[in-house]
Every structure is written in structure tokens, then in C-alpha cells.
Predict the 3D structure of the following.
Amino acid sequence: MESAVRVSFVPVPSWAAVIAGLFLILVGLVAILRTGAVVSALILIAAVGFAALGILVLLGCIFLASHRATWVPFFLLGLFLLILGLLFYLVPNVMLTILVFLIAVCAIIAGAILSLIGITVSFGRKNRILLTILGLVTLFVGAYLIYEPHVSAMILVQVAGLYLIVMGILAVAGGLPSRKKPDVTDDFYYREIRD
């Protein structure tokens, strides 16, 4: 028995991809040219953000306790977030090293997933190639950060800036109109699945 299933994807408008790409390029340039300011801002944002979130969760525990709801797991979460914010403030170098490791792990996972999507999902050759390249670059950045665990936050920000510039260039390239008209039978618009 054969059945055809219409699969429709909502592509990102080309102008949105170009604007997002230009924004990524701008942020990447700021990260490369003003690295010290970016690192200081990240430490401050992490310290204040985690501490504020921890305080809000702890305040939420008062509400939960007053309504006789389970509050202990939220109390532990709030306490953990508050301590994390204080650690970013008190020992920023140690926390940045841990953050570099976490970013590396996330980059490896994201790179593998992006590469897998680029290789397996059929939605146009140009998009597949761009996604595969983006995935491989992300995977390489993550592997480099794992290989060099003592990389300073300054180098991480510069690598992240370069990465954002590459992502931005790929997004702009993906958003520029192609010379070829899309084929209505292209897998991007229609796919037949046989049971």
C-alpha cells in the first residue's frame, strides 16, 4: 500500500537570514576587537543573572510553601543558582574555565547534530552543504576547546567571535537569492513516504 504524505517546511525569509547574518558578523567583530570588555561583561552578566535568578526562585519557594505545595526541590535549585552567581563574582577565573568546558561540550553536541541534519535531511543542496559546514566548524571549535582546556577566556571570546562571523557569512550566503528557481518537486516542498 502506497501513501503520499505532503510535508511542508516554513523556510526562513531570505531577508531575515541576511539580517541575522549581518548581526552575527557585527557581534563577532565586537568580540574580536573588544575582547576584554566582552569577557568582563560576560562575568558580570553571569554573576548577576545567576544570583538574581536564584533569589527569584527562593522567593517563589515562599509562595509554594504558603500554598502547601512541594517547595524543597525549588529551594535547592534557588540555592544552587545563588551560589553559582556568587562563585562567578568571587572566583571568576575558575568559573570561566568550567564555562569553557561546558561550552566545548555543547559545541560538540550541537556540531554533531548540525552535521547530521546537513547530511541526512533533504531540503535543498545549498542548505545541506551550508548546514554541514556549520556543523563541522562547530564540532571543530568544541573539540579544540576540549583539547586545550586551559584556554583563556580571552581566546574563547575571540574564537567565539570568529565563529559568529563564519556563521553570519553562511547565513548571509544562505539568505541571498539563488539564480535557480525552486523546483516544486524538490524534496524541500514535497516528499513521498511509502509504507
Summary: Residues 5-10, 185-190 have pLDDT under 50 and may be disordered.
